[in-house]
Design brief:
The protein is an alpha+beta fold. It has 2 domains: 84 residues, no CATH class; 267 residues, outer membrane lipoprotein receptor (LolB), chain A (Clam). Helix content is 23%, strand content 32%. A 12-stranded antiparallel sheet has the order 6-5-4-3-15-14-13-12-11-8-7-16. The protein has a two-stranded parallel sheet with strand order 1-2. A two-stranded antiparallel sheet has the order 9-10. A hairpin with a 7-residue loop joins strand 3 and strand 4. Helix 3 packs parallel to helix 5 and helix 4 packs antiparallel against helix 5. The chain starts with a helix and ends in a 25-residue tail after the last helix.
């Protein structure tokens, strides 16, 4: 058996020396053979990969599959370099790798998968008078939104990802758990767990370790759009369906002279830069009540000298239970930022809402070493095309907000257990 393995290695070495060009199938077979033989280190295999020249385009899926099958970090980095070199080549005509890490890539569609017919005509936009009526309802809702919120606390789960080469190849930076308190209209964020380790820090302090953070989800982002001093410009955009309800979607724009939307960047302690930028976006709201279900923010006209090149946030609201009653509160958010050569993505969720009184004492029993809850299902955050079917009765939903619900007897609060002591020397 050892003799056969040695001969195989010699054959592969001769192949690499005589022929540096490979297609994707040959590349995958070569790396899998090297991993199976275990005769070379990750560094040595990476050196061999760097000497190759591909005849087909290397895809993210192939790299992820080979990484799942045992390719080390240096080999994976060499594959990414090879991917950049092969970007202009044609993709392979057949699947070359397979692993539980990825699902088979869907074939390219040559025709639309949905054809519009007589029964699927798009809903026509409302007339100008109706649009103004809906905007007035939305504005009234947004400006009075915080007045209807109780004082509360909740857990914010932040799942952070980075794409170092801006090639849609995100890698996890870990998770952050934070206590968010809302008291008399003021928001306060306190981080208590970073990647399963107990800590006591602000989001600004956590941001210095990489990634992006955001704040203002509990009302201030919504109200700023409709405040008179913002002088926002509104226009009709489209109809949509969100969480099973029909939404009227308006676009908006606020110039930098009337904006309160700020972006901060820090490469380390003592190096923080902050600007206020113009922004635009979309507002998804109930056509009858003005209840806001989603807001999209996109920073525009960012100065060329500022490190952050792109910033987008999508914020969703829905019914949540607080102390046995129903309120419309932030449900989830997504934050995308591009700074220098890094692209970051944050997926935020707001869980375990609890009533907070000014004289109450709050402790945590959330274990920072425990994994965060499972992400929300896609049905909670994905937009669907609008249909002619009527929305759910609004009276039922309006009555739910503020109604007494079945008490939640779970106890997610308490002091996190301290990390275990170091082992004896």
């Amino acid at each position: 058996m050892k003799l056969r393995l040695g001969l195989s290695l010699l054959c592969l070495a001769a192949l690499l020396k005589a022929q540096t060009e490979m297609n994707l199938e040959q590349l995958a077979d070569f790396i899998r053979s090297e991993l199976a033989l275990k005769q070379h280190t990750d560094k040595q295999l990476a050196v061999s990969v760097k000497k190759l020249k591909l005849t087909e385009k290397l895809t993210d899926k192939t790299i992820v599959d080979l990484e799942a099958q045992g390719a080390g970090p240096k080999t994976v980095q060499a594959l990414h370099d090879l991917q950049t070199q092969s970007a202009s080549l044609k993709p392979s005509a057949q699947e070359t790798t397979s692993s539980p890490a990825t699902a088979p890539e869907a074939p390219i569609q040559t025709e639309p998968t949905i054809k519009l017919g007589a029964k699927t005509k798009p809903i026509p936009p409302p007339d100008a008078v109706r649009q103004q009526q809906m905007l007035d309802e939305i504005k009234q809702y947004a400006l009075s939104y915080t007045q209807n919120l109780p004082n509360f606390v909740c857990v914010e789960v932040v799942r952070r990802f980075v794409d170092p080469k801006t090639m849609d190849h995100y890698r996890s930076l870990g998770n952050i758990l934070a206590k968010v308190s809302y008291n008399q209209g003021q928001e306060n964020y306190q981080v208590y767990s970073v990647n399963g380790r107990y800590t006591n820090a602000s989001f600004d302090q956590v941001a210095t370790s990489g990634g992006a953070v955001s704040s203002g989800e509990f009302g201030s982002l919504m109200s700023q759009i409709f405040e008179p001093k913002s002088e926002a410009e509104f226009g009709w955009d489209h109809w949509a369906t969100l969480r099973g309800r029909r939404m009227a979607v308006f676009n908006y724009f606020i110039n930098s002279g009337h904006s309160n939307y700020s972006i901060a960047y820090s490469s380390g302690p003592g190096d923080e830069q902050r600007i206020i930028t113009a922004y635009k976006g979309l507002i998804y709201a109930d056509e009858n009540t003005g209840e806001v279900a989603r807001i999209k923010f996109v920073a525009v006209d960012i100065p060329q000298s500022f490190p952050v090149r792109e910033a987008t946030e999508i914020l969703d609201y829905d019914l949540v239970e607080i102390n046995g009653q129903q309120y419309i509160c932030p449900l989830a958010a997504k934050l995308y930022m591009t700074a220098n050569h890094d692209r970051t993505k944050n997926e935020l969720e707001f869980r375990d809402y609890r009533k907070f009184g000014t004289n109450s004492v709050i402790t945590y029993d959330t274990n920072p070493l425990a994994p965060p809850p499972e992400p929300l299902p896609a049905s909670k955050t994905e937009e669907q095309p609008a249909s002619d079917a009527p929305s759910a009765p609004q009276k039922t939903r309006q009555a739910a907000a503020g109604q007494t619900a079945k008490p939640n007897t779970s106890t997610p609060w308490g002091l996190p257990s301290a990390p275990p002591p170091p082992p004896p020397q």
